[in-house]
Design a protein that fits this description.
Number of helices: 9
CATH superfamily: Clavaminate synthase-like
Largest sheet: 8 strands, mixed
Mean pLDDT: 94
Helix content: 25-40%
Shape: globular
Bound molecules: N-oxalylglycine, manganese (II) ion
CATH architecture: 4-Layer Sandwich
Low-confidence stretches: 286-293
Structural class: alpha+beta
């Protein structure tokens, strides 16, 4: 097998073949890690990893984040464990709808995520792609006035805020991210701890830029996402069962594309925790619902 890394035509993403992720030697891992830093999204078609092998692949990137107590891999799915499909109004479905907005994983946690590994198990007959957007290239493409304006700005990140905006009022403690911890405040411009590249750290969880009114803040954040998430900075993957993708949450946004919820879509997700030196929120504040309205 020869490891082959083929960049997409977008500014991020590469297709990686000629490797078995369940059996990585040190030299191959070094090549994959280098490609991860260069391309930020790596797509590995046809891996068919067991759950254990997916977790072990994730562990190459760092410590695994537990989204459910003691679980290192969780379903991202509209199918219940008994095989029946969820209704549109239930909480799990609302979280899936939330995933259709541009976001980065765990930015609402005190320690934001480093990477996410996602695999496809069951795919719908149409739709249901995942799309990524390159926040390094987006930052580079900003005009100098905007770069100067955002250089010192920060935003709060909250899953209460982002889910609230789509009408999902979850109870505290009801699922991952709905904690009572303080809401992290994160700079809009992030420096990648490995590559040193600047990127926009934005997405649906971000709100309430200190120093701006809520309306000004929302307008600025929305305009940044709209500008950032455009060609040539976006890439969508149409899944086949067995495909595995890993992305760098520190410099890309991602979203799920819609599909007919009368069909099953079963994905498995493993999240790699951020390194505290770079992903711990420097400042935070107590949850303030009024600031989120
Ligand atoms: C995720 C996510 C998108 C998708 O796994 O974090 O946002 O396409 N998934 O399922
Ligand atoms: Mn996600």
């Amino acid at each position: 097998m020869t490891l082959t890394i083929t960049p997409t035509e977008a500014t991020l993403g590469a297709i990686v073949t000629g490797v078995n992720l369940a059996n990585l030697d040190d030299a191959t891992w070094a090549d994959i890690e280098r490609a991860f830093h260069a391309h930020a999204v790596l797509i590995f078609p046809g891996q068919h990893l067991s759950e254990t092998a997916q977790i072990e692949f994730g562990r190459h990137f760092g410590a695994i984040e537990h989204l459910v107590a003691d679980r290192e891999i969780v379903p991202i799915s509209n199918q219940r464990p008994d095989g029946t499909l969820m209704n549109d109004d239930e909480s799990g479905m609302q979280l899936l709808r939330g995933n259709e907005g541009w976001h980065t994983d765990s930015s609402y946690m005190p320690l934001a995520a480093k990477a996410s590994v996602l695999s496809a198990r069951v795919v719908p007959s149409a739709g249901g792609q995942t799309e990524w957007a390159d926040m390094r290239a987006a930052y580079d493409a900003l005009d100098e006035v905007t770069k100067a304006r955002i250089a010192t700005l920060s935003a709060y990140h909250s899953l209460y805020y982002s889910q609230g905006r789509i009408g999902h009022k979850a109870e505290r403690g009801s699922s991952y991210g709905f904690h009572t911890h303080e809401t992290p405040l994160r700079p809009l411009v992030k420096v990648h701890p490995v590559t040193g590249r600047k990127s926009l750290f934005i997405g649906r969880h971000a709100y309430g830029i200190p120093g701006l009114t809520p309306e000004e803040s929302e307008r600025l954040l929305e305009s940044l996402v709209t500008f950032a998430c455009q060609a040539p900075r976006t890439y969508a993957h149409a899944w086949q069962p067995g495909d595995v993708v890993v992305w760098d949450n520190r410099c890309v946004l991602h979203r799920a594309r819609p599909f007919d919820h009368r069909e099953a879509r079963v994905m498995k997700h493993t999240r790699v925790a951020g390194e505290p030196a770079s992903e711990w929120a420097g400042q935070s504040v107590s949850l303030n619902e009024s600031a989120m309205a």
